[in-house]
Structures are given as structure tokens and as C-alpha cells.
Amino acid sequence: MTEHKGWTSTDRDRRSQTMTVVWSLIWAGGFLLANTAIKKEWITGDAGVVAATALVVFLGIGWVYAYVRYLSHADELVRKVQLEAMAVALSVGFLVGFASLLLESGGILEARPTSMVLAMIAGYIAATLVGHRRYS
Amino acid sequence: MRNRIRVLRAERNWTQAELAKRAAVSRQTVNAIETGRFDPSLPLAFTLSRLFGKPIEEIFDPE
């Protein structure tokens, strides 16, 4: 019988895990390129900005599809870890977002969507690492 | 939940990787079940029961 090599993966989900990473990189690259192009005015006019945004959203849909497919192939422990990580990410994003709004109301700082997004990403990564460590 | 997965696996000279492959789960899942950190779902419990040829009650013991 063939030894399968992954600690957290099975033979079936290794390919979908790879595709999730690939689509994540494609989406992130598209976002960075579009953001740079808009800021440096390589893309000008409302139509250009909307088109670039639509392209990034389209790439994001590909990433979401790959991630959902990965979850459907993953075994139950990985799904449990991912569910908990998404709960933490959502909660952290909400908390940071609403805290930012309060701070903005008090004139302390300007609330930026970037803060909430970065907090969600950090929360998701931390919770995923903690989850896998807890079950190892 | 306590279980006899490790003992039953050893009786058959299966590594964790081999059991994981037979049960279509990851090695981490097998390890987590053996160490009591994770309780398997009912379908997985039935799969393990079939693989070991033992009733679920002889494999798992609720504390």
C-alpha cells in the first residue's frame, strides 16, 4: 500500500489544497497589480477602475470556489480546524471594525477597511496554526 | 473519548499512515483520535469499525 505523505492532508485533498494556494496567489497578485495601477494612474477613469475591480472580484470568485472545493475534500479534523479559524477571523474582523468606528467617532483615528481585513487575515492564520497544533 | 485504536492498529502491524489511507483521513486525524484529542464522526467510527472488524463499542469507550 502506498504511504501517503501529508500530515494534515489526504491524497484526495492535496491537489485541491494546492489549487487553493495557487488561486490565493493569483487573486493577491491581481489585487496588488490593480491597486498599484489605479494609484499610479496607469488605469484612469471610472470605467477603467470599475473594470479592474471587476477583474479582481472575478479572480476572487475563483479563489472562493477553490477553497470551498478544498473544504469538501478535506477530512473532518481539517474541516473542524477551518470552521473554528473562520469563526475567529469573522469575530476578530467585527471587533476590530466596530472598535475602529468608535475610535473614529471619538476623533482618535480614521477608520479604514484595511484594518478590519488585516485583522481577519491575522486571526484566521493564528487560529489555523493553533488548531492544527492543538490536535497534533 | 478513550479508544483502542492504537492497540488494534498494532495488532495488524499498521502504521498511522496506513490506517489513515485505509480510512481516507489524514495522519493527523488518526493521531488525534488515538490520543483522545478528537472524537471521530459517526461515519468515520463506522469506517474504523469495518476496518478493524470490531463493533464500535469494542473500539470506543465513552468516559
Description:
The complex is a heterodimer of chains A (136) and B (63). Chain A is mostly helical. Chain A has two domains: 8-74; 75-136. Chain A has four helices and no strands. Chain A is flat. In chain B, helix 2 packs across helix 3 (27-34). In chain B, 60% of the residues lie in helices and 6% in strands. In chain B, strands 1-2 form a two-stranded antiparallel ribbon. Classes of the chains: A mainly alpha (136), B mainly alpha (63). Chain A binds chain B through residues 1-4, 6-12, 75-78, 80, 132, 134-136, and chain B through 15, 17-18, 20-22, 24-29, 31-32, 37-38, 40-41, 44.
Offer a few descriptive terms.
heterodimer, A: 136 residues, mainly alpha, 2 domains, 4 helices, 81% helix, flat, B: 63 residues, two-stranded antiparallel ribbon, 5 helices, 6% strand, globular
Q: Report the span from N to C terminus of chain B.
A: 6 Å
User: Structural class given helices, strands, pairing of chain A?
Assistant: mainly alpha
Q: Please, how many helices of chain A?
A: 4
**What helical percentage do the residues of chain B reach?**
55-70%
Strand content of chain A: under 5%
> Could you give a short account of the major beta sheet of chain B?
2 strands, antiparallel
What sequence of helices (H) and strands (E) makes up the elements of chain A? HHHH
Major β-sheet annotation of chain A: none
Low-confidence stretches of chain A: none
Query: What percent of the residues of chain A sit in helical stretches (DSSP H or I)?
Result: over 70%
Task: State the strand order across the main sheet of chain B.
Answer: 1-2
Strands of chain A, count: 0
Estimated radius of gyration of chain B? 10 Å
